[in-house]
Amino acid sequence: MLRPTLSLASRALRAIDRIAPPATAHAHCDIPCGIYDPHLAQIAALTVVRMNQLIDALEQPGDDKAATEKYHNSFSRYVTVKEEHAELCKREVRIIWGDYFKPEHAQKYKDLHELTWNILKAGSKGRQEVNMQAAQDLLSQVQRFAEIFWETKGVATKRQPSNQTVGGELVVPA
Questions:
Q1: Fold type of domain 34-173
Q2: How far is 4 from 1, CA to CA, in rounded Å?
Q3: Backbone phi, then psi, for 157, in 5-degree steps?
Q4: DSSP letters along the chain, please?
Q5: Mean pLDDT over residues 142-162, rounded?
Q6: In which band, very low, low, confident or very high, does the pLDDT at 11 lie, cut at 50, 70 and 90?
Q7: Taking a C-beta distance cutoff of 8 angstroms, is the pair 123, 86 a contact?
């Protein structure tokens, strides 16, 4: 069986890769795939609201060690999920902002840039604080972002109940 030979340049580049491996690039999809949807950002924002609800509903434990451990366990889990979903919301909005929206969208929707900036700031606040108003602000801003997104595609939207324990609404194609 014949084995193809590598050129001197190929062997040199492979040796360099072994010494200093190239960094792995991570991206949603820089093909571009054209598959964008603000749904996940809305679900993440709803989750931030829900975690604030659960944190607010926690009852302070008394002197009972088991109740104290349960409280701390629940509190830390709720905070972790709240922070993860606030960051997920920001990530999804950044992807749509950076990869989908075009200059003509920003020209037509004069509040788009400021709205996106406010979502990113609200997402950070949602991570930093247990603050129901901040969570609700994040959700309402992401809903507006979703309305603009679908309008740029020529798709009418409606608000429908999320049908989740948290309550709230989702902006979806009509």
A1: Four Helix Bundle (Hemerythrin (Met), subunit A) (1.20.120)
A2: 10
A3: -125, 165
A4: ---PPPPHHHHHHHHHHHHSPPPPP--S-SS------THHHHHHHHHHHHHHHHHHHPPPP-S-HHHHHHHHHHHHHHHHHHHHHHHHHHHHHHHIIIII--HHHHHHSTTHHHHHHHHHHHHHHHHH---HHHHHHHHHHHHHHHHHHHHHTT--EEEEE--STT--EEEEE-
A5: 97
A6: confident
A7: yes
Q: What per-residue confidence (pLDDT) applies to 36?
A: 93
Domain-wise residue ranges, the chain: 34-173
- pLDDT beyond 60 at 67: yes
Distance CA 172, CA 135 (A): 20
pTM: 0.81
pLDDT band of residue 97 (cuts 50, 70, 90) is very high
Residue type, 1: M
Cα separation of 98 and 113, whole Å?
Answer: 11
**Reported confidence tier of residue 4, pLDDT bands at 50, 70, 90:** low
